[in-house]
Target: Acyl-coenzyme A oxidase
Amino acid sequence: MSALRFPHLPPSEPQGCDLLTQERSKTTFGVHDLSTFLYGELYLERQERLLALLENEPAFNKSNRYFKGRTERIAGALRKDHALVKLSQKHKWTPEEFMQAEALIDEAGPFGLHRGMFMPTLASQSTDEQIEKFLKPAMRYEIIGCYAQTELGHGSNVQGIETTATYIPETDEFEIHTPYLTASKWWIGGLGKAANHAVVMARLKTAGKDYGPHAFVVPIRSMEDHTLLPGVMAGDIGPKFGYNTTDNGCMWFDHYRVPRISLLAKHSSIKPGSGEYVKPPNDKLSYGTMVLVRASLVGAARQGMAKAVTIATRYSAIRRQFVDKDSPKMLGDQIIETSVIDYSMQQYRLFPIIASAYACFFTSKEMMRLYYLNMKNMASGDFSMLADVHASSSGLKSLTTTMAAAAIEECRRACGGHGFSSFSGLPLMLQDYVPNVTWEGDNYMITQQTGRYLFKSFRDLVAKRASGKFNASLINNPTLAYLNTYLDNPDLKCPATSAAQFHNLEIQLAAYGHRAAHLVADIVNALDVEKRTWNSMLVEIYNVSVAHCQFILVQNFILGIRGEMPQPEGVAVVELSPQAKEALTDLSDLFALHMIHKQPGEFLTSGYLNAKQVSLIGKAVMDVMENKIRPNAVGFVDAFAFPDFLLNSALGRYDGKVYETYTEMATREPLNQMEVMEGYETYIKPFTNPQGKKGNTMQARL
Amino acid sequence: MSALRFPHLPPSEPQGCDLLTQERSKTTFGVHDLSTFLYGELYLERQERLLALLENEPAFNKSNRYFKGRTERIAGALRKDHALVKLSQKHKWTPEEFMQAEALIDEAGPFGLHRGMFMPTLASQSTDEQIEKFLKPAMRYEIIGCYAQTELGHGSNVQGIETTATYIPETDEFEIHTPYLTASKWWIGGLGKAANHAVVMARLKTAGKDYGPHAFVVPIRSMEDHTLLPGVMAGDIGPKFGYNTTDNGCMWFDHYRVPRISLLAKHSSIKPGSGEYVKPPNDKLSYGTMVLVRASLVGAARQGMAKAVTIATRYSAIRRQFVDKDSPKMLGDQIIETSVIDYSMQQYRLFPIIASAYACFFTSKEMMRLYYLNMKNMASGDFSMLADVHASSSGLKSLTTTMAAAAIEECRRACGGHGFSSFSGLPLMLQDYVPNVTWEGDNYMITQQTGRYLFKSFRDLVAKRASGKFNASLINNPTLAYLNTYLDNPDLKCPATSAAQFHNLEIQLAAYGHRAAHLVADIVNALDVEKRTWNSMLVEIYNVSVAHCQFILVQNFILGIRGEMPQPEGVAVVELSPQAKEALTDLSDLFALHMIHKQPGEFLTSGYLNAKQVSLIGKAVMDVMENKIRPNAVGFVDAFAFPDFLLNSALGRYDGKVYETYTEMATREPLNQMEVMEGYETYIKPFTNPQGKKGNTMQARL
Model:
């Protein structure tokens, strides 16, 4: 039977493309100027060039992405990863080009962790010999690896892992073993089917002592035919909420022997024969990588929010619903339904997300700068920045990934029923995004690291101020600065008395600083004076991390717009046009005020703001949204410069052809490839036409 | 190649089953007593009986549910729906039995809307003749129907639909037509593939006038062979975030003629020949159904939260992570990791969800009672309850479905990485649940109905009080009661001065009443005095609906525990045991205090609570969680009485065999049915062994 043909009808007026054109005509700044500020000219040119390549490669075609079951999707992702490597080799891509192409294709795959974790681990922990043996073949994809740390019973607490690697002096080998079911390696991306090697984190046992988790490079599948090696069992852990194009795997070792060179020995090693353990020189070095990963997740959070809100904002300008009776819209002399973007509730849902995406842009940039600066410092023995950068990166990872997951889901819901369709692009985006709130440290758990740093800073500062040897002008980081301002006057009140005054960015920043400091002081008092246990304070500790990181986001947003953020070495400065600067200032304004308006509790309990002021802030929020952000909403999301190929969304298309694209996508649904569904004869006909009567019986009945 | 065999290893100590046994020994109340209070003995017995049947029917087997792609899932769901109808016919199930069986199988299907919307619409809007012609064959599944209201361009605003049904006097027919792409019927459950009839909402046009949307029963597929009838095009709208076992469909009509009897004519009709329109007697009657659907969604919200938190609570008692240094747990003389349920943050995430599920139980019960009472009243011409019930049902639908969606996702995340696995049961649960926040009125949009009612009530009350003819003792509903208390003294302050005093339920309820009334008064002032537009107040209107409905939930929880909630007619009272009553009182306490603690803003800005009191509430929350709820946590979720067959979760099993079940489920992953994945030769081998070398080359290299 032939496929169904849906009719080609036009949508009723006004058309989506006309509505978007109209929106774009209202933009007060040059969209390309703002895109260039965000990404640089080079990046945007490269995007055009890469797009032309990617859109022509069948392995990257997205038109059937939403229809496939997991088995098909994994097969497609392997084909895609293969094609990507081939293409990168053909065109001799730089790492930047590779990453940008990967982001445009936007689908995890079996080789992802080979590049993302296996090779970086080899690079940072290998001896020269190991670089030759493991890293170089890995770079040529002769070795395809994965990173096997997490166990079935052990996630965030790496120290608790149970897999053992016992040194056998007689043969100069390690015996890797899985003693319990809870020690099964689990969740390991690329392990399920693709990898032939693994970095395995296992407890190093030698000379009767347990030295805790160490990294071992271990062959797991045969280089001849990819079968599992004797002593290794591995497979796929099954379907997941998202990330189904990756073969997350599980693995067990049965007294599996590997030679001594398997232990990645740049930092710590074993003396052959005696099995004596040689300690690493400084274990702080490993924090560097953690900071990098967490800082890069702030950038990924920006990307996630920005993609989702691009779709929702464009669609909201097109979708019309009900008539706003106080201000009806006209088309000629007809009253038409109001675009949903004109409802204040929709603005309150979406515009703060636009603002958050820009906020994360500045903070992500700053975190990367701090990471490189800190690495440089540490290399020369200066660890003074590490605590601050580590604390911020933990708290910011937690806050921004939580924000982004909420933002994607909010955008999905803000698209109404159609946000539930896969063709909106939002369900899969959410499903693939949400592991970010769990991996690299659960978002609740890791805020304890931020808290610990804040409390220590506060206690040190209090002690210093009491010592008489204190000089405020020596304070060199923003955390100490806001804590110090608070200690100068804990009972300070916000001076603003009108909605207009709350648009002052300094007034906003002071409120965030005071609130964070007040929470820090409260918790330190509870811990040190009231002697409450750490466990009993975890909710407050989470909240203080949020408050601290919101301060950072607000501050970087302000400094970034002003051009006052330090520039990374060797990076050319791109100036903001005055129009774009003004428009971004409105977003920064909304960003800071909206968070207070939505959750004013701590600003009030800190005593810094009062009820009247919160109400003024509410007015200021509605004012900036309606009068400043609304005309630029589509321009702000256009400036993110996401091509349709990336978004793969019927609702978020640049040209506004929402309903036509949506219908066209539905024609490709496999169920529509035949008119009568397969189960009809067995499961429907016995009810509706058991005797197999001929003729259109029901038509006749009518 | 043969399937992979994962090893049978035991988890390390302590075992999940022992941990749950230990938890259960701490429960202070009889779990079965509480289950009986929730459901009644009859329901629980029926569940056992139905389970025995369902678990033996292959069409209901859930063991491969998480592995299937959409095409397979739709096919399986049709098979399941067929089997369910056959089983119900064989055992002559009552509607209650049918619904209970459906809930245990817990999978939407192609016949769902036939029962859920098609037949109920026929039942309420048919003439006697139409009952014979349409409803009776539908009850026998000769007719399988769907309910086609939503259009591609028109959702919540039903008045905006564009499909037309024009009366043709010459032939005494209606011509149904789709004029634009935006008029395509869309999202119609069961339409995609299964239905042969549809109730179509179309604009009734007759004698040159447009009478707006009316319901028509229309044949769409042939009764002979299920092909589409000439003039009708229909298909499936494609994959969705969830609900993928339902064939949501789209449909177009091309000048499609149906006889006059197609118009469901109980309330309004057309005179043959002249085409004169006969108006319905009272259009308020249709609100009844809307109230029923929204009220039933409160019950579904309870079910959703309860299922999710059952899984997360049991798993949290088993999952161990890190050592709480202030209070390390021992196994023999070994320090072991602490169960995550013992961390205060985990308690703060999960216990309020347990409390919310119980809160929704009482309010759902009360809403159903009010629905039936209101229907009875309306039948005798008394519409006095309608406004209040309609307003509450809208606001409660919005609040409780938003709470439930958030709760399911929070439970998923609270299971850490494993919550991301489909085998946790939580991803699919979330995906299938979330349409609730959009359908039956978008959760932001419908709160305007609640707001309108509150503002009118407030204005009327103010006018009555000013008239001098006011008698407070005549106030007969809780909304007016809290508004009146507020008007007696808008500047009232909460009298509590210690954490202990906040455990007083009356003090809690007064805070909720004052806060809601304060918001109502503020908005009425903004609308009536400041003359702000309705659109500019939508955020505040949403917030006031939340505040009002939180008041209702808190109040019903308190009354329900005390046995002071009115009992529906003819329903036997089940008494709470004193132990269960005490335990539920702790939950009610937590429910009320936690919401204030989490979002204290409006309680502070209303002036009713101060910062010190919010801090005391924080202490009260932590105290009740640790000392009262913690020992009963597993008992509370056990009392929900969800069988493992329903939950279908490795993490939430009653017996605590988390890791064993999880591993066993992974063995069934299709990718594990062969050792080497299909794409190896094409996509991996060219990199790893291009020359096809024999021998384990990498092993050799090591």
Q: What stands out?
A: DSSP finds 22 helices and 13 strands in chain B. Chain B has a mean pLDDT of 95.
